[in-house]
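#structure-requests
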Amino acid sequence: MKAFCGIDWAEDHHDVAVVDEAGQLLAKRRIDDSAEGFEELLKLLADVGDDPGDPIPVAIETPRGLLVAALWSTGRRVFAINPMAVARYRERHSVARKKSDHVDAMTLAGILRTDAHAHRPLPDDTELARAIAVLARAHQDAIWRRTRASNALRSLLREYFPAFLAAFAGDRSTNLAGRDARAVLALAFTPSAAARLSRTRIAAALRRAGRQRGIDELARRIQQALRRPHLHQPPLVEDAMGVQARALLAVLDAECGNADRLGQAVAEAFAQHPDYEIITSFPGLGDELGARLLAEIGDDRAWFADARALKAYAGSAPVTRASGRSVSITRRSIKNNRLAATGFRWAFCAAAKAGPPRSHYQQRRDHGDRHAAALRNLFNRMLGQLHHCLQTRQHYDPVKAFAPPVTAAA
């Protein structure tokens, strides 16, 4: 007898429902989020005929967590169903919009019973690949938090201390996440205090930040910029803003440290993976972007049927909508957002240097594409090349990847 299991996941308990091929309920139970609860789940599945050679598949609304990891370790197929899809399936059987944990568990089991072919089980990635995914996503989140902290501090400094931003601007906008800027700002959080800084203290702060060359000249320029006449807030308001800046700088320091440590950890783990040499052979892919790419596509090469499936998952493949005489081609909005963000940076880095990728980008621009569309097209093409290289275990070859077009004379 064929059986299907659905689990409505929650923070402290999980509702389980098992149905047969006809949709009849075989068993149900609520388990807690503990080792004992998982043992109850395994016993429940065994009582309805779970076979170690062909274990009962499980549908759940999340792709991560201890319960998912424990289920995956038993060798069974685990399907992570999007909660929005579950809601649509639930509406097929009831127009009253009733909802309960048991109903959701039954709906999940019913999805596997009727439409398992339309959903993909979780990939069979190696333990190293899953560890890289954890570190790469944590590193990406740390960078995003660092950017938010830097923007918050910049916004505050513009209100009462724009001279500091100008002192470290140079030819571009001020990078408050840089060690030099954070070290000098830690000496004086108000314009009045900064104007009293000596060149010796500024130089000492730059040395503590790790700078080794041009310290005296840079300290002189920073001192001159901080001592120029500029507008001031009222003294009490200025001091209060300085206290706020001190707190924001502490947050920024912490996020910068987290990003550095996670970046080092993900680079060390990524270098141990068998796909490291292939991925980093592509232009624009280093340790950071390469690890993020591997984190999102995994190393289960059977998870994507072909390169088109991978491109759709990444959001680089366009979507065609055709109905009657109306035909439109638009960009894909439903995608893996982390992979799409990584792909945009990958294409940007690849197109920044002279070579076939830049030529392809320029051809798309000459064809009429805007900047984002041209980068997305470049990412789409290089992602297909990466899929081919990973499947065939060969390194990137620019001649094969971007063969020159055949002319009429040729």
